[in-house]
Description:
Layout: H1 2-24, E1 26-31, H2 41-48, H3 51-54, E2 57-62, H4 70-75, E3 81-86, H5 87-95, E4 100-107, E5 112-116, E6 133-136, H6 138-141, H7 144-152, E7 159-161, H8 167-171, E8 175-180, H9 184-192, E9 197-200, E10 210-216, H10 217-222, H11 224-243, H12 247-256, H13 262-274, H14 282-286, H15 293-305
Parallel strand pairs: 1-2, 1-3, 6-7, 6-8
Antiparallel strand pairs: 3-10, 4-10, 5-8, 5-9
Amino acid sequence: MTGTVLRYSVAAAALLATGLAASANEKVTFGTNWLAQAEHGGYYQSVADGTYAACGLDVTIMQGGPQVSGRPLLLAGKIDFYMGGNMQQAFDAVAQNIPLRVVAADFQKEPQVVMSHPGEGLDTWEDLPKAEQYIIGDEGAQSFLLWMATEYGFDLGKRVPYTYNSAPFLANKKSIQQGYVTSEPFAIEKEGGFVPNQFLLADYGYSTYSTTIETMQDTIDKRPEVVKCFVEGSAKGWYNYLYGDNKAANDLIKKDNPDMSDDQLAFSLSQLKKFGIVDSGDAEKLGIGAMTDAHIQDFYDKMVKAKVLPEGIDIKKSYTLDFVNKGVGMDLKK
């Protein structure tokens, strides 16, 4: 009887210790830049499987959306980390003397594509400038379209606004349209009944990192262990989401975004893998989240040449390599 009581006491003490450890985990909030989707899968994975908790964090994911502006919340100290779109925003922050830093780049390639109708004389990248219309949103017209014009001779006068409605593209077979490789091609196939040609801008030299993790310099200075845990936990989450059992993560994504379908999640994941969005380039040797000075400098130089950004920005102030390039999580790749 005494032995039984002792065993129960030891078990109870272990459970209590576990509970205390969990309750002691530091609460942090990560703001994403859009509604929950597979493109956020690595972060949801690390919440679902306890990876963040294992290194001491209690992470809440605050999903973005059309009515949510996450970066101002980061600047105001209301959230701890924010999902940046690409490096351009970080460069802009330096130009405005905002002490924001990119601490990891979880996408080696931006998922931006240009799509065309197959069999209409627009089947290669070199064909695309001769399209009748370039259906490009305002943000794209002020960034990657300027680069396309500078590097490849696209005619800025052919641009018409993209309103996130694919009807104009479907109606004009001689047009091209922007999209995310994980999203718009799926919609075109559903609505138009065909698979569009997809040209990933990253594969033609648009060299920005994407889906970055941003935080404030003050957080890096005062809570470096929190930054380390979040960056490394996110890298592990992406390996597990890409190559492991991601059902629990997808369940959390659908809970946050009930409009997300299993078909869309599966398509997005397959595209992330097919196009090497997360695990390619620098990440293949240095681990997911990797960044290098040379890669970032290359993108900045291209943006200056295209007159997207001014010369003279001290881009070294926009990021730090202190928390990446350590190969964390590479052992999880199946």
